[in-house]
Amino acid sequence: MFELTVESSFSGAHQLIKSNSPCENLHGHNWRVALTVRGDKQDATVGWVRDFKEIKNALQKELEKFDHKYLNDVLPDSPTAENIARQIYKDLSGVLPVYKVTVWETDRASVSYRE
């Protein structure tokens, strides 16, 4: 089984309402996102599982929904890193064989989602 991962990023602001923390205040992050897809069969002609460009393009298109946005409008239930990761996973699962999505809120804090 092969796992292919591409990374990208977006900038976005949010407020974590009812968190009883400083995160209730409006603040922003430069989010980093890694998309991992899996596959066990390589293309016989080229020798790859998927074209990295295809994965990168799908992730970039998805992140346009979040980039330079007030994330509470994008994910009104709660724009946490966990919910962002799950939303990206769900949106891209119909397009690619998604295995896992990892979202970094900071350089030292990330969350991964997979089913």
Describe the protein.
- The protein is α+β, with helices and mostly antiparallel strands.
- The chain has a single domain (2-113), classed as 6-pyruvoyl tetrahydropterin synthase/QueD (Tetrahydropterin Synthase, Chain A), CATH 3.30.479.10.
- Helix content is 25%, strand content 37%.
- The protein contains 3 helices and 5 strands.
- The two termini are 17 Å apart.
- The mean pLDDT is 95.
Provide keyphrases for this structure:
single chain; 115 residues; alpha+beta; Tetrahydropterin Synthase, Chain A; 3 helices; 5 strands; 25% helix; elongated
Give the structure's gist in a few sentences.
The protein is built from three helices and five strands.
Fold blueprint:
Blueprint: E1 2-14, E2 27-39, H1 52-63, E3 69-70, H2 71-74, H3 81-93, E4 98-106, E5 109-113
Parallel strand pairs: 1-3
Antiparallel strand pairs: 1-2, 2-4, 4-5
- Architecture in CATH? 2-Layer Sandwich
Question: What's the β-strand tally?
Answer: 5
Mean pLDDT: 95
Looking at CATH, which topology would you report? Tetrahydropterin Synthase, Chain A
Oligomer: single chain
Determine and state the CATH class.
Alpha Beta
Counting DSSP H or I runs of 4 or more residues, the number of helices is 3
Q: Sketch the topology as an H/E string, one letter per element.
A: EEHEHHEE
Range of helix content: 25-40%
Q: Shape, please?
A: elongated
**Over all CA atoms, what is the radius of gyration?**
15 Å
Q: Any idea how many domains?
A: 1
Low-confidence stretches: none
Structural class: alpha+beta
User: What portion of the residues fall into strands of 2 or more residues?
Assistant: 35-45%
CA-CA gap between termini:
17 Å
Which sheet architecture does the biggest sheet show? 5 strands, mixed
Strands of the biggest beta sheet: in what spatial order?
A: 3-1-2-4-5
CATH homologous superfamily descriptor? 6-pyruvoyl tetrahydropterin synthase/QueD
